[in-house]
Every structure is written in C-alpha cells, then in structure tokens.
Amino acid sequence: MSTDYDLVIVGAGMVGASLALALAQSGLRIAVIERVARDQESQPSYDDRGIALSLSSQRIFSAMDVWSRLATVANPIKKVHVSDKGHFGKVRMDAASLRLDALGYVVIARELGGVLLSSLKEYENIDLICPASILEFTNTDKQYSLSIEADGKRKELNSRLLVAADGTHSDIRAQLGIQASEVDYQQTAIVSNVTAEFSHENTAFERFTEHGPLAVLPLAEKRAVVVQTVAAEQAEYFLGLTDEHYIEEIVNRFGRRLGSLQRIGKRQAYSIVQVQSDQQVANRAVLLGNAAHTIHPNGAQGFNLCLRDVAGLAEQIQQARESDVDIGSQMVLDAYFLSRKADQATVSRLAHGMGKWFYNTSLPKSLLRNTAMTALDIFAPAKTHLIRRGMGLSGRQPLAVRQSVL
Ligand SMILES: Cc1cc2nc3c(=O)[nH]c(=O)nc-3n(C[C@H](O)[C@H](O)[C@H](O)COP(=O)(O)OP(=O)(O)OC[C@H]3O[C@@H](n4cnc5c(N)ncnc54)[C@H](O)[C@@H]3O)c2cc1C
Fold it and tell me: In this structure, what DSSP letter does residue 97 have?
C-alpha cells in the first residue's frame, strides 16, 4: 500500500521544515522525511549556532504565522559595528536612525528548530516522518515513488513533486545525477557562546583581524555568540585550548569593548565550503537550501537567502494550485528558478568575495578595505543600499518580503 502526497520534502532542517510551514495552509498533502531525531546531538541543522535572521526572514516567518513564537526566543540586532583591528576603517549602522525596531535578529539554531518542528505538528496535512531513511526512489513523468524505512517498517510513498532539502552533501542531488562544484576555503568557523561583563546593547560586531574575521552576535542579557574564522590548519590548535586561553585569543582579536568574557559554552567547528549545484530544478524535483547552494558564512546570509528561495517556491506552488496547474510541472519549476536566480547569484558572489577579501591581510588589500569602509560609513545612500541588501530587501523578492521600509 502506497500513500499519495502532493509534495515530499527530504530533510526537516531549517529549510525543509520552513517550506512545509510555508505551504501548511495550502491544503496540499506534504510528507517531510528527516533522517536524524530532533533531540540527537548529531542533528546537523539544529545545534547551538546563533543564526542571524534578516528582516526578509522575519517577514517570511510572519507570513507563515511562525514569527510570534520565534520572537520569544529571538534577540534583536539594533546596531552593527564593523571594524578592522589596528586600522582606521569602520562602518556603523543603527536601526533607530532608520526608524526600524531592529536591523535583524539572532536566534539559536536549536531553538529555531524547536519552533519550526513543533509548528509542523499542528497541521493535519503535514506528516513529519522522523527518524526515517530513504531506501530507494524512482520516477516517471507523473510522479516519484519512494521506499522509506521508519519505525523499523518499510513504507511506500508517491509524490508529484520531490524537494531535496538534505544539506550541503545532498544524497538526493547525487541520486538525481546532478553535479555540484565545490570551493574549499581552507577555513574553519569556530562557534562558541559567551557571557560578557558589559552589555552589548544589542550590537552585532564584525571585526577583521590579521588572523581572520571574528563576529559577535548579541543574545539575551549579556550573552553573545562568537564566530571566529581561522585557517583550517590552525583549527586543531584553537579547539585544543583551555577555555581560559581561548577567551584570551578572542579578547586579543576583539578587544575589551565588552569587558571580560566568561562562561564559554562548547566550541563547535565547521569547515567552510561553497557548493553550487549545476541545476536546481530537474524532472519534478527541486534542490533547496544548502543542497542547492552553500555559501561562505561571513555576512550571515546563507539561511536568509535559502528562506527567500523557500518563499519563492511556495509562491509558485500556490499560484499553480490556484490555477489548477500541476505543481510538479517543468513550467512551475522553471518559473521558480527564474524568479530566484538573480538574488542567489548576487548573495553568493558577495559571500564568496567577503570570504576571500576579508580574510586577506596583505597591506594593500587592508588599506583598500579600510578606505572602502570609511567611505561607506560617511556616504549615507551607499550605506542604506548595503543595509537593504543585508536585510534581504533588495532586488526582486517573493511576495512575503515585498514591503518598503527604507
Ligand atoms: C558557522 C555557520 C554559521 C552560520 N550562520 C548563519 C547566520 O547567522 N545566518 C544565516 O542566514 N545563515 C547562517 N549559516 C547558514 C545556515 O546554517 C544554512 O544556510 C542552513 O543550515 C541551511 O539549512 P538546510 O536545511 O538547507 O541544510 P541543513 O541545515 O544541513 O539541514 C539538512 C537536513 O536534512 C537532513 N538530511 C540529510 N540527508 C538526509 C536524508 N538522506 N534523508 C532525510 N534527511 C536528511 C539532515 O539531518 C538535516 O536535518 C551559517 C552556517 C555556518 C556553517
């Protein structure tokens, strides 16, 4: 016996779960298949990383009716301070000067996951099947047929559309025969949560140093997430330091603007790669999120970009449904990709540029960077443009994002 779905999403990480929620009210029958149980340490999407959400993400989550819950665990970013250690350049941004409540928000990935997965369970048209593994799948020009194993039993599912939201090293992408190109930056991001002596006043800091960039994202009270990017060959050294010495390293790079730091949480390391799949839509299948494009985390745009893709895909699917068009048809999938490719290309290019340029410590590059930062700080229209881009509000965007605030 097979169960028929309109849509099967593989991966209930940040992106897969968000797509199911974006379509929750559509009446479509949706299955979300997740390999790793939510509360397991090995759950790759929902760990202790702090995720900076842009205003575009806030709007999309509001449209999904999820923001009111997320707001209870999200901390606002009211100011942004970008600096270069030992140099003159600075860029400062302030929500109040733009008459905004916040420039963005920070949420711990695990808490984001808690809100998304518990929201999914409220919809009768969504089946979250977890933990489950895909044994095999085949497709015709009408549907996909999947065999999965869950609760020790084999189950058969049919679906008109298959969405692969299974992360950077997507198995589904490989099984669909879609190639992807990869850039290994030879950099490692080390993430830890600290408590500071002084209030961060809801400021997000990005500081470039001779050893690589360091970001400090504000959490509630005096807590903050520290993301330190180091050369891959130095990662072992930084991970092996005692908490006391690691804090010294952070203070060396960041300075004492938040006073002394303490109560460091577990350090987590992420190898930084860029992955771009050659194709994002194929016969009745869409690659979404990191499976479609994984970008450098400098600038904190990865998930924000993916969520705009989620909103774009949900919009096309809704429109198709309302017009009685097959949601898996090539016309619908092509319209989705066409609507998203410009934003994807711009953000990926920027993230790649930041990953390389801001890691570069040579004097000419450093001078150029500082001059550009100073010019940007003084020239208001350029700064507003940068803020709009950082908030995910520039260019052609899905309906859920389109509202003018600046
Ligand atoms: C250090 C770091 C900091 C970051 N900070 C930010 C930030 O501040 N702001 C921001 O916007 N972005 C940030 N990002 C990017 C963000 O983490 C990614 O964009 C996001 O995780 C992509 O989510 P995803 O659901 O596509 O993939 P993943 O998070 O990898 O989730 C994939 C899911 O699919 C499941 N899965 C995999 N294979 C299968 C299978 N065969 N069957 C079933 N399930 C499967 C996995 O278990 C997982 O749950 C950061 C990234 C890093 C590395």
Answer: G
pLDDT in tens, 391-403: 667 777 888 887 5
- Residue 39 belongs to domain spanning: 2-76+104-182+275-358
Q: What share of the chain is helix, strand, coil (3-state, %, to 5)?
A: 35, 30, 35
Residue to probe by mutation, ligand 1, list 290, 294, 313, 391, most atoms within 8 Å of CB? 290
Residue with tokens 């208001």: 380
Tokens 């009211």, residue located: 78
Query: Look-up: residue for tokens 């987590």?
Result: 268
Which is higher by pLDDT, 292 or 349? 292
Ligand 1 proximity of 192 Cβ (cutoff 6 Å): no
Q: Is residue 210 part of a domain?
A: no
Q: How many domains would you assign to the chain?
A: 1
d(CA 197, CA 255): 13
Encoded tokens for 68: 């009111």
- Rounded to two decimals, the pTM is 0.93
Q: Is 396 within the bounds of a domain? A: no
Of 9, 34, 120, 276, the one to substitute when testing ligand 1's pocket (max ligand atoms within 8 A of C-beta) is 34
pLDDT in tens, 220-233: 999 999 999 999 99
The string of pLDDT tens digits covering residues 289-300 is 999 999 999 888
- Of all helices (H) and strands (E), which one includes residue 368? helix 363-378
Nearest alpha carbon, ligand 1 atom 19:
303
Residue-wise pLDDT tens digits, 350-377: 888 877 766 655 655 665 555 555 554 5
What does the pLDDT read at residue 75? 98
Q: Is 309 in the pocket of ligand 1 (CB under 6 A)?
A: no
CATH number for 111: 3.50.50.60
Residue with tokens 């997740």: 34
Provide the 3-class DSSP secondary structure of residue 7: strand
379 contacts: CB under 8 Å, gap ≥ 6: none
Examine residue 331 and state whether it is found in any structural domain, yes or no: yes
Average confidence score pLDDT of the chain: 90
